[in-house]
Design goal:
926 residues, five-stranded antiparallel sheet, 37 helices, 25 strands, XPB/Ssl2_N, alpha+beta
Length: 926
Amino acid sequence: MGSVSSEQNGDGPAPEEPGPEARPAPRTLAEDLRARDDAALAALLRARPDLLSPVPGDLTQLATRAGTRASVVRALEGLDRFTLQTAEALAVAPPPGAAGPTVRESLATLLPGEEAAERLPRALDELRARALVWGDGDGGGENPRLVRTARELLGSPSPTGLGPPLAEAVGTARLSPARLQEILGAAGLPATHDPVSAVSALTSLFTDPDRMSALLDGAPEGAVPLLRKLEWGPPHGTVDVANPSRPVGWLLDRALLVPAGPDGDRSESRGERADRSDSGGGTAAAGTVVLPREVALHLRGGRAHREPQPVPPAVAEERVHPPETVDAAAAGQALAALATVEELLGHWETEPPPVLRAGGLGVRDLRRAAGLLDVPEQQAAFWAELAYAAGLVASDGEVDEAYAPTPAYDDWLRAAPPERWALLATAWLAATRVAGPVGERDTKGKALAALGPGLDRGPAPDVRHRTLTLLAGLPPGTRPDRASLHERLRWERPLQAHRDPHRTGRRPADGTDRGPAPAPAPPDTPPAAEEAPVTLRDRLAHWTLEEAELLGVTGRGALASFARPLLGPTVPGERAPAAPGTAPAAAAGTHGGAAEALRNGRPREEQEAEAAEAVDRAARALAPLVPEPLTEVLLQADLTAVAPGPLERELSAFLGLMADVESKGGATVYRFTPESVRRALDAGRSAADLHSFLAGHSRTPVPQPLTYLIDDVARRHGRLRVGAASSYLRCDDDALLAGLLADRRAAPLRLRMLAPTVLASAAPPDQLLARLREMGYAPAAESAEGDVLLGRPDVRRTPPRRPPEPVPDRPPLPDAALLTAAVRAIRAGDHAATLPHKPKAPASTPPDGGLPRTVMADTLATMQSATLTGTPLWIGYVNADGAASQRVIAPVKVEGGFVTAYDHTADEVRTYPLHRITGVAEITED
């Protein structure tokens, strides 16, 4: 495989700096990468995992891929505000000259201040670790170079509000040589012989602070204020170029303002402008002017940004509660969350809601669930999504699909409350699905349904983790000020603070969204302040705080102590210390915890063990705050029962069968009604069972009104019997049947008397039962043998289902084994690509002189061992046409019946099906 020219990766050769170093300064990004050690390359691949898909064949390929637009945008989105400001300053910094300042010296002017100077080396190291900057030494040396794609993204138009350099602006305007000489004369400069030297003389003037100040001191009234209006951007304005006012004319005559298109050259005739416009020159609107970058920097005092932000904004405290109060409130809400999920799924196991044709829960079913839980519909959607994320509910897959609990729900019910809560909290932290957009419309105008498609938001896990980590960095019991919390999150990921693309439109192809481009504003009028958009990360942070309170992760707005293990073992709000030889990008944000453990690049087994340990620590921390389940309730004379705390599951289930929940909170209030008592009798309980149960589980004597209610309902229960005729009705009480037959409300049932104790109906038995109960009777269904049929509904379960897979907005972080193997393969490929090629032959041949042949088990074991040791292997391979060949490979990964390896024979990384490999043999070097 031949090497691709590295100039397309490194943006062209850089001027070599003289020095005594034995190793010359790198001239391209590929050469810079080639000079890095394996730890630095592994840190780069971990910080930018998209570079690994597929594994680059050599370092030149890696540099090329690192310079693609999509990859650079993704890398820029991972920068904090000051590191991004550093990259933006690099994009507008003047190139180093023989006698001019170095790039680092220019950065010190563009990013002034002691704090900026202190943190600038770290920002440059971060940019170099992500291969956004290259150069000689740490942070790119004295003249770090921004990769070309990043310079194009950040330089034109520049987020700093700076316009193009004077040379570019003059080239765009296509000013004639005569016009340039006029400008030189107006600026007090001697005439030159060519346009290049004229532009160079003007640039030298604009970058000389003393001469520039003297020039502006002689400006007519109103000229400098016009420049000030464009000083911080946008750098374009509209003026009457043909008949400018005196201040505008003075600025145009000295190139302090430059026409943004060829139509602005006042030295040309109208016909010449028209001819040139027809030929395709220039795209700017007539009358548009631009403020050259050098002029704007002089007005700004050399600063690239109005206010550099090297220090992250602090999260302010809104209120401080005692930590014990916070934990108690959060623990109470955690128990309420368990009860809410159990109540919802307990209802769905007998009355499963149907799945919409397009997927998701219908509006009426969501409204019904909200009424059942006595919560707003948005909260009902959250509880449904939480159960779905935890794998407790799913579609049953039947012809008439419905949502029902999964077998995992039964395992969850059998677990202790702290463990059940930890499972829900872990699922919530890792889920990319969010309930907040339910009810909104997507870009196609379709309403988003709970449990339906379109609810995945890739940044959600990261925003949840960062939000809660910021809460963990506050003193225990502190409730944060939300405005300052949002500002801190924006500082950490400024380029990800885009509008919600699912809500207000699609995200641009390059991954960025800076909002609508401002229209060119005339320099005579101040630019209108644009209303700050509601960003996706802001919405995710808002939902995180609301949902954390519902789930019991926070109490009274402060993080609960028992939730901290889920966030990781590192100091809250601090970066984990980097291991020796590890670049800053690899150490940034390395938090543990259940949610982060599966994303931190270590071996999978180690990640899963750490996640399980985090869940166990959280459950153990919550356990002392959870009261023991109660075995008794308080029965009251007003036909209510009060449960002052969580009940044992059997007691809760029985009480829920014979009474209705009236209110929830710290204590649950149940109300006994004739309908609820009849429900228990329909389920097969007798009056004696109900009396015995209440007597055995009440701290107070059973009130007489409740005893009378049970006896009265039981006496009337089953006196009427319903069977199939379509249906029949029988009763030993002739008077009762006669009264029913005469009741006008029974007319729709079309009753007729078959015998003094038997009535027949055209209605089905279930409809007959329902109608009689509506009329105030208490009928019981019976079988063909005359036995009472229990009214217990069938309990539905789905087949075993896996929880929904998260849909992240970035590739998964590679583990350590893959990073090591990938770096080894890239090094081997680069070695093969950069050294003179020799005829390739196996270093050794098998004893029989043919292809190596081993059984599949030995082949697989040898391959897996070679991925760990880096041992090259000699293999026999049969392609799809049946042609056999010999190959020398260095295995990188064995997975899913395929081996990914660097093929020394072909000088590239390839993937081979294991079933086509005849055998393997180790290579012995001569």
